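To whoever is covering the structure queue this week,

Two jobs came back overnight. Logging them here so there's a record in the thread.

Job A:
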Amino acid sequence: MEKVEQKQTKISIKILFFFVFASYLFFIFETFQTTYSEFISIKTEVQDIQNQKEVLIDKINKLQDDINALDNPSLLEEVLREHGYGKKGEVLYIYDNPEPVKPIDEIFSNNNEISFPEKFINFISGKDG
């Protein structure tokens, strides 16, 4: 009887050990999967931010080149005149550009025909007149 009890004890210890070990493995793999997916998302986010950083550095360099180009007096004068500034004593006349007018040929050659589905919808909705 003692041998049977010892065998039952050994088997129960082995089963308990197996369940503890299986729970440990499940916990490790579940944690690893969550951690790995977070790592991948953070890695892509870091890559996106690095790409944005490179774009901003390029913009900064371009703007710095534009600022350095303004050291040229003739270019500076040209930029100032584009923005409506003039030399002392000059009278500046600034005109607004009028809205472009559609050529008369296009106005009269406009094809006013509508398609059959549009005619049908206008008939159903009562817009046909």
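Job B:
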Amino acid sequence: MTSNAARAVTRISHADPQDYCAIFDEDMNTLYSLAFLLTADHAKAEQCFLVAFDDCRSGPEVFPGWARSWRRRAIVKQAIRLVNPRPEAAANRVNAEAFEVPGRLIQMRAFDRFVFAMSVLEGYSIRECASLLSCDARDVGQSRERALRMLAMPGEDFIAQRTHAARSNQPVSAVSAG
């Protein structure tokens, strides 16, 4: 095989920067929403989105079929770098006033929010989450349970727990459901 033919095969078998431009453009709203869910901050979400985009365009070569999942993973990894969610970080929630499910997600501790988004929405295993978050799988499992329990609470119970947690200086997710 000539060197030109080998280069042609390489170009065909890997996603190139134009491929990433197209897939980021196609799903811009979804990708930004994922970045915002993870960071709970519009400025950080924008930064996360842009850095993930640059990382994908200049990063390791992947097959075109993997490019779509690779860009989501790049968003997750960049959000982890920006927020650095830790299991013991108790009070890094956004004080949102809406109590619908998206508001509840934003109000969660950063670690719980990351675990929920990664394990439930993105489909990462507990071990993958633990590896990406550099923590124990037990912490991830407990956080996932807390997040699911918090989202399942009726509105009045959620508000009451949030108020109780604020008075006792505990995170909402640490207050037991009863």
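Note for Job B: The chain has a mean pLDDT of 76.

Please reply-all if you pick these up so we don't duplicate work.
Q.
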